[in-house]
Amino acid sequence: MNQKNLLGLNSCFLDLNDPIELFKIWMEEAKASEPNDSNALALATADKNGIPSIRMVLLKDFSKRGFVFYTNLESQKGNELKENPNASMCFHWKSLLRQIRVNGKLLKVSEDVADEYYNSRTYDSRIGAWASKQSTVLKSRNSLISLIDEYKKKYNNKDSVPRPKHWSGWNLLPSSIEFWLDGDNRIHERLKYIKDKNGNWNKFLLNP
Questions:
Q1: I need a labelling partner for 17 at 20 to 30 A (CA). Which of 9, 69, 143, 147 fits?
Q2: How many angstroms separate the CA atoms of 98 and 38, rounded?
């Protein structure tokens, strides 16, 4: 009897030893069923005092090396991650009645990787990265619009807008990944993968 049958899981969990492979399959199914932003996730961080904060961000890449998103390094989350690299991600797909939670530590992506993604963004998005002092107090909306106009004049060549040094990506190196499926009468199905000290994944069922 294979482990899938032994655990009694719904077939959508498959019988995979690598959670990244299962994540990829679920993400592809979410892309086909979610009306907007199937790559949206809730990112939870905490400062050096353990005070938490959470916000929605967009996943831009993932692989066996981790889960990548981009942000202003001087934003609230950017400053918190400099103090405390531990973080959690939560994907919730209402159309599929599924959820995935990822825990781990965040490291900045390389300069080359950040440059490549930044240059793939629209011109207005690249200008926005220069103009917005993310998470700081904004005196008025017009002041932001004025800054955007200033940077458009400064970088008027749409094919040559340098990446700000305060803007880059973070890669969450997962230590655990949990897959959740809605069940009747709140008897949900939960499968958790935990990485051991040798880098191998072990999987367990959790009570709903």
A1: 69
A2: 12
Catalytic residue list contains 186: yes
Tell me which residue has tokens 């961000």.
Answer: 57
How many CB atoms are located within 10 Å of the residue 2 CB? 7
As given in the structure block, the two tokens for residue 71 are: 């942000």
* Rounded Cα distance, 81 and 106, in Å: 7
- H helix count then E strand count, the chain: 6, 9
How far apart (Å, rounded) are the C-alpha atoms in residues 115 and 164?
Answer: 10
| 128 alpha carbon, distance to own chain's centre | 20
Find out if CATH 1.10.530.10 is the number for domain 3-120+170-206. Answer: no
List the chain domain ranges.
3-120+170-206
Residue 122 identity? T
In this prediction the pTM is: 0.91
Catalytic residue among 101, 141, 163, 186: 186
Residues 6+ apart with CB under 8 A from 205: 7, 9, 190, 191, 192
